Fold each of these.
Amino acid sequence: MAILRMATEGDPRLDPYLRLTDRQLRSLRDELEARCVLESLNVIELAVGEGLELESVLVDERHLGTLLGRVPQLEEAGLPIYCCDRELLQDVTGISKSRGYLAVARRPRPLSAAEALRGACRVAVLESLVDITNVGALFRSAAALGVDAMLLSPSCADPLNRRAIRVSMGTVFKLPWAVAEGDWPGDAFDALRSEGFHVTGMALVEGALRLDDTSLKEHSRLALAFGSEGWGLSREALAACDDCAIIPMSAGVDSLNVAASSAVAFWELCARR
């Protein structure tokens, strides 16, 4: 472990934290070069506990002792720990009240759908969610409320985007997930059914079941599908679902944001099974 003092944001060792875009960090041309940025002590601690390989840490110099106390593995890892004052850290994060801890890590190896679904009984399927904050929030709710795995359409926002990781509180490293391969949604939904999953779309359509319908809890393996923020599930995805469900609401409100509606669905059909 090397503890190094950072004095200026022009230091090239800060490039992954400050100057590289999420697309550059993802390194689409070379999977082995792909990186992601973690923010907050809790996220770093969780990621290390899940076996993520860190390459460096950037910490407010006032919090170095706390970092090493909470994540003692860093002392054995031999990676550089960069210390700086609060002002420089604010410049790096763009946040006036930074949490004081950042790290750069290698992106974990992508799982195949078969790997992510292995042993799962409750799965969340995300189609075309493009808001990074919503993706992160969905992962956090899913991890907290009994979801075993996530399956994403290729058009979804990247769960390992810097902001998505922060909003998820690091649960993107804890919950198995995969980006579906092949034709969407046909191949993905067929693969779910071949594994014994009943697929329920969360959508305001005629004939949809109430979320508290007891028949939904009778399925030993259940996949809940959520659509994009603007239009919901596509017509093709709706046609591929076994049925649909809605959240009963009052006061003239007909829908909730996908991050909120997913949390309700997870509580009812996953946490309380």
Amino acid sequence: MQVQMKFERYIATLIIAVLFSMLAFPGKSSVGQTAVSKLPPLLHRDLHDYLVEQEIRQQVRLNILPQLSQSVMAARFLRHGPEGKKRVSITFDDGPFLFTEKYISVLKEYDVDAAFFLIGVQIDKYPDEAKKIAESGYEIGVHSYGHRQLTAMSRSSIENDFEKSLSAVKRITDSEIRFFRPPFGEFNDTVIDIAKKYNLTTVLWCVDPRDWQETDPDVIARHVIDRATNGAIILLHEGRESTIEALPQIIEGLWERGFEIVSLSELLSEEIV
């Protein structure tokens, strides 16, 4: 009798749990998997490498993102290059670091180009490593001075950040600085306008293996190789041994798929006016 009562209570509890999950999570399919396509993009951004223009517009409509002006909404942000050629570009954020030279060694071994978006405070901290990037002939872009959220700052503070960033970069190279990448990929009218003021092209990305949190080199490499498309701009980060270990796999895997790895300037030559 006790066994039967326990069984009945178990069944009742199970039924209640199922009913509750159906009511509380209506986005679940019949097999228990989230219907991702019905969720606001920001809520499932981990499944995407970047937000396309349609997703940005949807977020604005849902008041997830602040209202953006027509100039920003209509802009062709450089998330990727032309799709007519089987070419990609590799970029690194957040450097330099003590072992920046390890990245350079791999790139030189495979004779491929790359772009480094450097942070001003990191340049001040590791000037020799920053100079090695410049002396090796790799393109250098601005990635802010202190990697703060620029969209939360006043215009004067953002301008000051750009000034300090450019000053730091110019201390280690005489080459023209053409590219800017906002911290966290976040931007608004003011950020874009100030970047233009300094003749900087804002460059984002379209392939992001999230190597800043993923520690398995094989997972990082497979993500990049599988998701690369014509004109892809690949986002990687400095300061991570797992990324260094993944880099040879990434290069070889992209080559096996027939991609040519070119500099950012070459990839975007048709996009920049």
Amino acid sequence: MRHVVSLYNGIEMPLVGLGVFKTNDQKEMDNAVRYALEAGYRSFDTAQMYQNEHILGASLRRMDIVRSDVFLTSKLDNPNQGYDKALLSFEESLRKLKTDYLDLFLIHWPGQKRSRLIESWRALERLHKEGRIRAIGVSNCMKRHLQWMAEDCDVMPAVNQIERHPLLNQNGLAQWCTQRGIQVEAWGPLVRGSFDFPQIREMAARYGKTPAQIILRWNVQSGYAVIPKSVHRDRIFENIDLCDFALDEADMRAIDAMDTGGRTSFDPETFDF
């Protein structure tokens, strides 16, 4: 299994990244980033909405690593959508993250207003064309949102970051994206910590792995990147250690069959702001 995925524009993105949602203490962030780098992570995922870009930026500056060796992702917050506001808030993200470019910048939520989404995307297209962002994408977009973009925009998203875990596999959407060259990245892959399922525990015992590793392997073996969140050293190391085993097809299908449509956050089909 390759440790990176190639986006349609040739940019390579690590298959496993560290999510930093709700990590808002500087010491805790410093430790998490240090553990992640020791474990082999090179991808870090934040967002304007998380209000911790400045904390992650400070942590990365403290570490002995070259900026070009890190894949850094942030996301446009809902109040910052619209062409001019998106451009301004991007500059603020760079300032907080203490960098002069981003590897990936996403629109965090599409909402229900087509014109607002398109205006925001055109701002990202401009920043990408100017070389300020290496790849641009979206988060939580459903097919109809992506179809709006296909009809009205010049560049399609390189990534769609979606909620994906055993209780919400979104296989139809994920496969639709893959067929169109849009890389799927799973947020919340461990169901925000609520992943104590008997069938997963049974698989973990059989493969000699942890339940978290089984779920993350299911995602990456399906071709999807993952950004598990943790601040604990053992879990950070565990979550990237996915390459020395493979799930058989029966187990892959069994995890697919666990889907209940259960979301842990807003439904993109109806959520607006």
